Amino acid sequence: MSTVNELKRLSRLHAEGALSARDFEAARDALLDDVQDAEVAEPLDTSAPLPETDTKGVLLGALGAAAMVSAGAWLMGAPSMVAGTAGIAALGAITWIMFKDLDPNT
After folding, report:
1. φ and ψ at 76, to 5 degrees?
2. What is the rounded CA–CA span in Å between residue 18 and residue 56?
3. What local confidence, expressed as pLDDT, does residue 102 receive?
4. What is the DSSP string of 11-59?
């Protein structure tokens, strides 16, 4: 049984009155003593400069891909509104994929 499930079971037994507060705390502490401490990861080095990115080229590439999706949908017989929406959706997805890992605080 996982530690979380065991804690839930102990909590339920305590709430139902099957375990006194002292017994619950003893069982909880014994259970948590068996849990290994997680290793702490080294902090990231934020002083290192970020690599330069050709933002203009990246955005032009995303626009080109979106235009290709839109044109492809239109050539396959989709109405103009649907083709345009597909292109815009593709542009949004590509932009999100490319920039999702950027820190919003910078």
Report:
1. -85, 5
2. 66
3. 67
4. HHHHHTTSS-HHHHHHHHHHHHHTSPPPPPPPPP-TTSPPPP--HHHHH
Q: Are 39 and 32 in contact (CB under 8 A)?
A: no
Please report how the helices 21-33 and 3-15 are oriented relative to each other, as an axis angle in degrees rounded to 10: 180
- Residue 80's pLDDT is what? 81
Nearest Cα neighbor of 72 from 53, 51, 88, 87 is: 87
Whole-model pTM?
0.38
- Per the CB < 8 A criterion, the answer to whether 16 and 24 are in contact is no
Task: Give CA separation, 44 vs 5, 41, 99, in Å.
Answer: 33, 9, 19
Taking the C-alpha atoms of residue 96 and residue 21, their distance in angstroms, rounded to an integer, is 50
Residues of the chain with pLDDT under 50: none
Q: If you count them, how many residues does the chain have?
A: 106
- Alpha-carbon gap, residue 65 to 39, rounded angstroms: 43
